Task: inverse folding
């Protein structure tokens, strides 16, 4: 099978390019008053500028979220590589379109030369970069006398890739590093002199275990969105600019302490939260700007710590259906007007628990429930209680 546009045989990778190819094919098949020479390939008739705009629109169509998504990053760089493999003309245009290269995923297995080339192709645009190293790698190999030569070479290459990433620190827009906590000092995250001027998202997946006394120093960056996955004892960062905050493997105390200094926060996501018997708050914390809250695997004591007067979107995954009591208590105390409610149970939940929650959310427009059997009576009560609802989804546990 060959490409009907340029006649080049497909090698299999072009099957992923249905959407971009269709855009181009529709463009060249538009009615024209002139006569077309069927013996001439159609692609050269399109200017490089037009091709570049088509390619860029394909990248823009990929979905994004509040925090970096690995699949999205891989799709983006994969799109650039696939476009360049169709024909020489497309390759030339793709290499000269920096918008196709400013979102890159770099791993410790990638040759340093490739990392350098990919990063350079996006100049001068803001840069979205991810870096990943396997947890089992011995990051101290270059300082260990007993380490094998291959391990030393591996870590040397890793340091070289990170050096290349740091060379573009002024262009960082979002960064996601999956590394050992000790490696954070290798990046330009603590040197104020090299502070990224455009950094919007800082996402860290740190290989730490419960009980590790990990302290993270990030005084060199001022992101607006911070996502940290891993057990961390202390975080040194300038909190004043944060509007989005996400923790995984954390405690109620740490969430309370962080939010007490990030009062303008608009989005929060907390996953795998532990309770602490010794934590005693002085008073509930009011978060006047919080619009969206995502919670997974949390203790009921969380709701006693906060008041959310502006909350409109609430997504919760309780481990126990009884945790809905805390949800209702928070809605009553906060006097918020929920618009979007998602409750995902791991166990079957009594319909009465859901109905009692809906009584407190008359302005609800979207409802997503998992773990509750739906009856005709339940449906009638739901529509009567939430007259503005326009979308709902229900799934069994």
Result:
């Amino acid at each position: 099978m060959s490409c009907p546009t340029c006649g080049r045989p497909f090698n299999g990778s072009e099957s992923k390019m249905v959407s971009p190819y269709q855009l181009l094919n529709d463009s060249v098949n538009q009615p024209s008053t002139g006569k077309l020479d069927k013996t001439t390939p159609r692609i050269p008739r399109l200017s490089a500028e037009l091709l570049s705009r088509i390619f860029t629109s394909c990248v823009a169509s990929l979905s994004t979220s509040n925090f970096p998504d690995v699949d999205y990053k891989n799709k983006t760089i994969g799109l650039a590589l696939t476009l360049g493999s169709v024909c020489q003309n497309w390759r030339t245009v793709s290499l000269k379109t920096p918008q196709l290269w400013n979102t890159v995923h770099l791993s410790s297995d990638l040759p340093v030369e490739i990392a350098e080339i990919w990063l350079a192709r996006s100049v001068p645009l803001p840069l979205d970069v991810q870096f990943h190293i396997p947890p089992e790698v011995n990051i101290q190999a270059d300082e260990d006398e007993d380490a094998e030569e291959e391990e030393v070479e591996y870590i040397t290459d890793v340091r070289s890739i990170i050096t290349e990433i740091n060379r573009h620190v002024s262009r960082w827009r979002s960064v996601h590093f999956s590394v050992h906590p000790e490696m954070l000092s290798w990046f330009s995250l603590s040197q104020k002199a090299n502070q990224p001027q455009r950094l919007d998202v800082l996402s860290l997946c740190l290989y730490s275990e419960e009980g590790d006394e990990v302290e993270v120093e990030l005084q060199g960056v001022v992101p607006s969105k911070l996502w940290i996955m891993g057990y961390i004892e202390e975080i040194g960062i300038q909190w004043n600019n944060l509007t989005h905050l996400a923790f995984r493997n954390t405690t109620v105390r740490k969430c309370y302490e962080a939010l007490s200094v990030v009062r303008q926060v608009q989005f929060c996501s907390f996953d795998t939260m532990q309770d602490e018997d010794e934590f005693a708050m002085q008073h509930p914390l009011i978060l006047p700007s919080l619009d969206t809250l995502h919670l997974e695997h949390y203790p009921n004591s969380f709701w006693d710590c906060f008041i959310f007067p502006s909350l409109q979107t609430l997504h919760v995954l309780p481990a126990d259906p009884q945790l809905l009591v805390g949800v209702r208590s928070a809605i009553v105390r906060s006097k918020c007007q929920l618009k979007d409610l998602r409750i995902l149970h791991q166990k079957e939940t009594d319909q009465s628990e859901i109905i009692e929650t809906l009584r407190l959310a008359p302005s609800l427009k979207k409802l997503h429930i998992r773990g509750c059997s739906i009856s005709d009576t339940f449906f009638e009560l739901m529509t009567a209680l939430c007259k503005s609802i326009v979308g709902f989804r229900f799934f069994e546990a």
